[in-house]
Amino acid sequence: MLSIEVNGVVYDDAIEISVSRSLRDFTGSFQATSSANPQNQLPVKMNDAIKVLADGVAIFTGFIDVLGVRKSASEHSITFGGRDKTSDIYDSSIVLGEGFEDQKDFIDVFKLALKGNNITGIDIINEAGTIQPLTDDDILTAEVGDSVYDFIEPYARKQSIVVTSNEDGNVLLLRGGTQRIGLNLIHKIDGAQNNVLSSSLSKNYEDRYNSYTAKSQLNPYTQTGEATTEEITDQEGVSDNDSEIRTSRTLIFNAEEDMDSDDSFNRAKFENNIRRANSLNYSCVVQGHSVGGVPFKINRLAFIQDDFCGVSGDKLLHTIEFDYSLQGGSKTFLEFTNSDAYTLQAEQSARAQAREDMGGDF
Fold first, then answer.
1. pTM
2. Which of 331, 326, 288, 330 is nearest to 77 (CA)?
């Protein structure tokens, strides 16, 4: 069951609650509806601090940004919603204060950006592993109107890091996950152990290419002195390929910063894999919001056996929507993609592909 905590007080009176979180979005969001009956009304107002709890565990921490009243002959209700604490990072134009010039640690740069914008109470949690220091070629600057997120995300993307948020409203730095949700998802024909209520599969190759080339921002031909072979190679970029796409499709793009050939290759691989991940989407609905008292989390692996969609093997959970209503009860919508998404492994081996079918007969 989902409940709401407003300014530190927990209420179980909401008629409907929905919470969404995704690897493809920086901030999480929620929406709720409550009766406007004076004897059964949540005391909510704009900018209130709010948490949403699943089985008593926080799955959202943020603020109320939207509030409305709905009145008809059959109902009188209040609808309210908002995003998590990181929304100011996504919305606010960055103010580059002092201290950036000599800073090379990625997380420290992020913290300085938060400090310059008076954004407090937010931690930066690194689950991405090793993050390389910024180099002398990384120019810490921003365009007019860029948000804090716009400023920091290119440096993360350069190192194949996904920047998102967690259930506590903190910043989360991720690469492809290895932890599991603790539940196998089964949807077999006449299966006695089925726990998937419904499912769907979609594929879209419109944004995928056979060849990806990331070019360095630095053009050696504009520099003083003679360009070296290495500088020319870095600027021209190194390609990565997707063998599932016809060879007539090519993408050449400028990298976010100056890069050597190794960084350029990794950036091309990451672009390849992100687009491959976004092109495949398996969705399912399950009863409840947690496994063993632990709510579902993004960037977790799950084994899926779905005879109806032709899906079998480990998949990566990238999007979650927790739902509760008086009519429908407690359900969770889960969306998955390839298990190696958001890593530098741009293509599965033949052995891995055979082990992880994704809609082979679709």
1. 0.84
2. 326
